Amino acid sequence: MATRASSTGILSQDKASEREELVELLKKAYWMEIETVMSYIANSVNPDGVRAQEIIESLQEDIEEELGHAKQFAERIKELYGVVPGSLEFAAEQSYLQPPEHQTDIVHVIKGVIEAETGAIEHYNRIIEFTDGLDFVTQDMVIEILHDEEGHRRLFEGYLREYEAEGLA
Ligand SMILES: [Fe+2]
Ligand SMILES: [Fe+2]
Fold this sequence. Notes:
Layout (H helix, E strand, L loop, with lengths): L15 H30 L6 H28 L26 H26 L4 H30 L4
One fe (ii) ion binds next to helix 2 and helix 4.
């Protein structure tokens, strides 16, 4: 007996084109998370100096969270009948999170993290809007991830404020 396709929701036949569009948005989100993991590993190891320690510890925690996000996006791509892309499809975009000239330049790292989190926040808001009334499961997942990114950005905005207050940023 042939299995029956779902007649309602994002997995239904008549939602095929919306589903494909959504899978593309999720692939972009997946790559953003993967690149963030790379950037945060580098920026949690490179910095020098006493003041760098807080940033290093923060980024170490974030690496685990961002990796978790990447896995969630990958799972959802599959559930929506998509295929998680291979590494050859990866194209780097985070020019702002490259190692600074001097490894004591913590402000460069803080600003780069804020930029990365802001990019994620913008893209995830877009997915939340796209999935509204279309795919509540993806929407629910991305709302939760968005909450994490907003927390990350707020934390690093706090670090930046401290440097600004001291005239260092
Ligand atoms: Fe993330
Ligand atoms: Fe984040």
